[in-house]
Design a protein that fits this description.
This protein is an alpha+beta fold. It has two domains: 66 residues; 133 residues, GOLD domain (Jelly Rolls), CATH 2.60.120.680. The protein is 25% helix and 49% strand. It is built from three helices and eleven strands, in the order αββββββαβββββα. The strands form three sheets. Strands 3, 4, 5, 6, 7, 8 and 9 form a seven-stranded antiparallel β-sheet that branches. Strands 1-11 form a two-stranded antiparallel sheet. It is rod-shaped. The relative contact order is 0.30.
């Protein structure tokens, strides 16, 4: 009967101690690597833009670089005109421009062609020359770029056929070689933001959420049960001897 009581007491003690052991948790730690994305704005410099310019090479001889020319309105059949003679060499280029306040006719003629046209005008014939090296009819602005075909004397003519006075601005030069087209790079610096995304890794030690029974408490419970069983058995032996 005594043995049974000690057995029940030991069993109840075992259940209680196991409940305590279950409530004791061991803390576990784990090392976790966290990776984050970081966006940063960094300035970047770029070079943009090109510029195309036309330049002339070789020797330049002025043909007419003077004051503005006033051409009165016409009272005759073929109007009034301004003429500028010059000597040209084959292969040279007549460059420059003519700007006028009213419409004018512009001609480049050899001396022979000019003489024939002037005779024609005086005779009251056709006001337009039969032959010319280059021409532009009824214009207010004319950029000249005319090749001289042969060495000789030439005449640049600005002809006003209207009845109103016209003021003209003339710039004319002979260039020893044809204009060459050059492409030049114009360096233009522009600073603009550049968005860059970086990945950053960091190491962090965190406590794990999982838990496990404390084995020390379990061992302690076993020892207590064994001691209780030994004491109970010893007392039982003494009772039997009595």
């Amino acid at each position: 009967m005594v043995t049974w009581k000690y057995g029940i007491a030991g069993f109840l003690l075992l259940v209680s101690l196991l409940g305590v052991a279950q409530s004791v948790q061991s803390q576990q730690y784990a090392t976790t690597t966290l990776t984050t994305l970081v966006t940063s704005n960094q300035p970047s410099t770029v070079t943009v833009g090109t510029q195309v310019v036309t330049t002339t090479t070789g020797h330049v001889t002025p043909v007419y670089v003077g004051p503005n020319v006033t051409i009165t309105g016409t009272h005759g059949v073929c109007g009034e005109y301004f003429v500028q003679p010059f000597n040209g060499i084959a292969g040279e280029v007549l460059t420059g421009s003519v700007s006028a306040s009213g419409a004018v006719n512009i001609y480049l003629m050899t001396s022979t062609e000019y003489a024939a046209w002037e005779h024609q005008v005086v005779a009251g014939g056709t006001c337009t020359p039969s032959n010319s090296v280059g021409s532009q009819i009824s214009t207010r602005s004319y950029p000249m770029n005319i090749m001289i075909p042969a060495t000789g004397t030439y005449d640049l003519v600005v002809h006003n056929l209207s009845k109103s006075t016209v003021t003209t601005q003339i710039t004319a030069n002979l260039v020893a070689a044809a204009p060459s087209l050059l492409t030049m790079v114009a360096y233009s610096t522009v600073t603009q933001p550049m968005v860059q995304t970086l990945m950053q890794a960091s190491t962090q030690t965190v406590q794990s959420t999982s838990s496990a029974p404390d084995m020390t408490a379990v061992i302690f419970i076993i020892i207590i049960i064994a001691a209780a069983a030994y004491i109970a058995k010893t007392r039982q032996s003494k009772n039997q001897k009595k």
